[in-house]
Amino acid sequence: MAQILRDRIDKDGKVLNDRVLKVDSFLNHQVDPHLIMSLGQAFADHFKDRQVTKVLTLEASGIHIAFATALRLDIPFVFAKKRPASTQQGSGVYTAEVESFTRGQTCSITVSKDYITSEDRILIIDDFLAAGNAALGLISVVRQANAEIVGVGIAVEKSFQTGRKRLEDEGIEVLSLARLKSMDPATGVEYVKE
Ligand code: G4P
Ligand code: NA
Ligand code: NA
């Protein structure tokens, strides 16, 4: 499964500079549903015996991957919102602040208290792991709900950034399907050997 994603990155990914990989022809703008279902299957295969009750992601680019994973695990998924819906009351939501390095902004993410409870065992899914701020925001939400974090599943991990270490320091298992060791616009992507 991981090979499918690496092959697709090699074929259609564009290394913009030594830090940013463009994957918007198949992963986060135009989307290849067969590829996404393969990623969902890979996450489901890995976490299937861990009694996951819900998949949690952050809008927008995590949603289709979370959907595929949740469908394969036969459980619901929830996406944290970057702008609270008009129906979300202040006391009715869990909130975390997420700083985006690529965009240089901080945003509040919210999840209704109705959809994560202390009974839940949560698998967090996202498209990219860079500095880990999005994942740490989702982890904060899960902990506010006193739910269990089973692990974090990531499509593309930029292993030269600190995200994996920050999550592992929290005692959280990270499964990344493609781990980028380095990127170069001239020579392309190099993967972490596993
Ligand atoms: P972090 O959460 O790991 O700290 O990452 P960071 O702040 O650096 O990333 C902010 C946004 O940029 C995230 O999307 C993330 O998925 C995306 N991103 C990070 N690195 C790359 C990259 O190399 N290539 C691409 N294409 N995207 C990257 P977001 O702002 O939450 O937006 P959305 O697309 O989910 O709406
Ligand atoms: Na994202
Ligand atoms: Na994104």
UniProtKB/TrEMBL annotation:
GO terms for biological process: purine ribonucleoside salvage; xanthine metabolic process. Residues 37-166 form the Phosphoribosyltransferase domain. The keyword Cytoplasm applies. It comes from the Eukaryota. Keywords: Cytoplasm, Glycosyltransferase, Purine salvage, Transferase. The keyword Transport does not apply. GO terms for molecular function: pentosyltransferase activity. Pfam families: Pribosyltran (PF00156). This is Xanthine phosphoribosyltransferase. It comes from Planoprotostelium fungivorum.
